[in-house]
Every structure is written in structure tokens, then in C-alpha cells.
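Might you be able to review the protein record set out just below?
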Amino acid sequence: MAEHDVVVIGAGHNGLTIAAYLAKSGLDVCVLEQNSYIGGATSTAEVTLPGFKHELGAVDHALIQANPMILHDELGLKSKYGLKYIYPELSVANVFPDDTYLGLYSDLDKTCESIAKFSEHDAEAYRKFYEMCTPMIDLLVGGLFNAPPPFGALISQLDQTPIGQELVRSLMMSAHDVISQWFEHPKTKLKLLKYMSEPLVGPEDRGTAVYLFVLIPMNHTYPLGLPEGGSGMLPASLARCVEDNGGTVRVDSEVKKIKTSGGRASSVVLASGEEIKARKAIVANVDARVTLLQLLEDKLSDDLKQKVERIQDPGFTGILQAIALNKAPEYKADKKLRDAYIIEPLPWLEEFRRMFDDLRYGEIPSRALAPFVVCPTVHDPTRAPAGKHTLYLWNYVPYWLKDGGPEKWDSIKEKVADTILDWLRKYTTNMGPENILGRAIYSPLDFERMNPNLVHGAVLGPGAFMYQFFSYRPIPELGQYRTPIDKLYLAGHATHPGGCVTGGGRATVQVIMDDLGIDFEKVIT
């Protein structure tokens, strides 16, 4: 039987982050990935035509820019292992049906200038909101990349200052509530509501206002980045770090069982029958529902089992189109929009709000769409043959379809994808069939099949509701990454700080190191 100090299940970027820090500390680490590639939802693949590199999950690396792993290059990913980021000045452009647009720039002044085209009041309000949130940025950033404090202690700490009290208040309000109090123009409101929905929460759901306090200041403090060569360059650099420090990364190695001995996690069994022993710990970079209800050989208590089963999915997810293009999209609103990294062709405000009613009832949005469109090759030509382009086209849809359930996705996904592509064509001048060289479509059901960690096609993990956030993610009993089984830890997007590309494994590994008696600060210096 092979033996390692630590076995990590799943080579998504969080699992590899944990493995890299542990390997750097001197432990013998083995990462096991069921697929033939690493990265999970941060992977890049040629799924349309040779030479066209498409993202199969994350397309922007925003929150991770504030992570000390990247900010201070703690693992040498940038200086030693080949990771390079590109930072577009215009992060997001929201295009409206009248062919006007509002830009979100990394530069605060330019953002306010863009808002002022529609409302001087809103431009001033946006600046004031940013300035109000700025004193909280260090606390918020620190909270994302370190283990979360107990929820009660967090609230108590926040309650000591006026801005902290405003943040606590936002935990009980919707993004729509706060946006309506601060801003007046429909286009400003629409832009911000779309921004706040991107954690896959309805912007009128209670508790979503907190994202305003996080995303607005971070956008102007830590600019959005895209890795040269594709999102897969992040896990690739992490794997190099693991292996350079003596660790092992294995693909085509599906874990089927986690075994215990004497009340502690002891080994894993692969689909091949091979058993691998873990001398010190097993880390499951997998949703708690998969880890504890499917992989773990021990049975949970009835109470904990019921709580795990009740972990709530987001109200919706999305359908992705990876498209190979002859030319980059050109927008009717302004040719300069090709310089924006993310472009969102939006409907009017009321139509946008009603879209979430369709999603809530398991229906494909029909009255309006609000796709998330990225042409990475405008900024990173390494992702396609010379002069050609790739397109990432994502739109909100339900996993559970009202008529037919998730299984119906196989028969309707192409029709739904065509409708979304037609919506984009209304805002562009050159997205006809003659510009499309190849296309691959991924429904929520396809995502779940590709990666069982994406339970019910939820690409960001369990719903990012306040009752499943911070130390309550995914439930309070598991909110510090530990499980009832000694030396078995949870990691990944189902734990704090949640989905998106965060490098959140940095928070998890501090808990593991503390339990193993390893000084994290010495490892990173």
C-alpha cells in the first residue's frame, strides 16, 4: 500500500493550493484527481477546434488578486512557476437596449465618469459608497483568506463601528434594497443588480446586500486579472509547486471510498481498487454531501446527516457556450467595447428583475436575458490561432426544470443556447453564422456529469446565502473545515470563502497546519 503524509482528494485550484502549502512545509502530499486533467472548474481545454483554448468554468480571476498567495507571491507561482496575469483597464461594460453602455473600470474616477453620463447624483453616490466601504477592506480581505471566526464573534466585532454596523444591517437586506436607497437612475441600478447577482443569488433575496460592501471596494483596490494562457495556468502553476516540493499529483485516480481506523481518517480506495494510506490527514476538496454521504465509509449521526442533506443549492446556475470565432464581437454601442474584458448585454430594469421570477419557478427566462460575455483573446492572443478568437457565453438558467427536471436538459440545451446567442446578436454587428467556426454547449447537467463536485450543476457550490456563509458554510458544524472524523477535512467551494477563483484553500490549510503543529507563518516567510 502506498503511503503519504497527506492525501488531497480533488485537484481543483483549492485542493492544489492546500497541497502546495503543505508540500512547502515539508510534508509528503499526494493529490488525487478523477479526471484526466487538473483544475476542476479552473480548467482550460480545446473543446471546439485545435488551437482554440476555452475556459470550462472560471473566466476571470478577481477575488484571488487580494489573496496573499498571489498578492505577495507566497508560493512563487508568479516568480517561479510560470503564472502571469493580465489586467484589463475596463473590467466590465454593461450594454443597454438603446446601445448605450456603463463601464466599470479598475480606476474609480473613470467609473464615476461613466456613471455620470446618466446621473451626476449616482456618480457622486457611487464614490461616497466606495469611500464608506474602504475602511473595511482590510477586514473583509483578511476574512476571505483566513479561517472564519465564529459568526457571533464576527457580528460583535463589526458592531463596534458605524461602517461595521452598516455591514451587519446589510446582512438582513437585499442588494435591491440598498441600491434603491443609494442610487436613482435605472441604468445604474441595473448595472449594480447584475453585478450583485453573479454569486448566483437573486439580487432581491435578503442578505445579498453584503456583496456590495465586498465587490465594489475590491474592484478598485485589486483589479480583475486573467491568467495568460487560460484559467488552467493557475492549477498548472500550483501543481508545479507541489511537485517541486516533493509532492505528487495524480490524474485518472478517482476516489471511491474514505476509510477510517480507530475513529480517524486512515486511507482512500480508488476506483481501480488501489488503497492509499494517509499518515497525518485526508483533505476532501469535494462538496460535503459527496464527501460525507457518498465517500465516507462511516455513517454520520442522524442529526448531522439530516443537516448535510439540507444544504441548500443556489436558486439557479447557468449554461455555457464555448465558441471559436473568426473575429471578435463588435458592439453597436461603441467599437471601443472590444477593450472591455466582460460585456453584459442587458434588458431594461423591470425585465431584468422579472427574469429571476422565471428562474425561481424552474423556467428558462423568456422575456429577457442577461448573458455574461467574454472574449479573452482580445487581451490574451495566446488562446487562439493568430487573428482568431474564443468566446465565453454564459447565461443564468435553472438546474431543476419545471417541466421535465434536469434530465430534460439533454433535449433542449441547443435550443436554449441558440436563444442566448440570438440575444447577443441584437447588440453586435458581426455575430452571424459566418463568424462562428465551432461551438460547444454545456448545460447544468453536463457540468455535474463532468465534475461530481458541482452538485446539481452549481458551479459555485452551495448557495451563497448568508445562512451558508462565513463560519456557517456549508453548515455551522463544518464551518471550520473539520469533520466529526478525526484528520478528515473539507475544502473547496462548499466551504469558506465559497465559490469563484479565490485561492480559498489558503484559509483551510491554516487550520490543518495548526492541528498538525506546523507554524504557517514560518512556511510563508
About this structure: The mean pLDDT is 95.
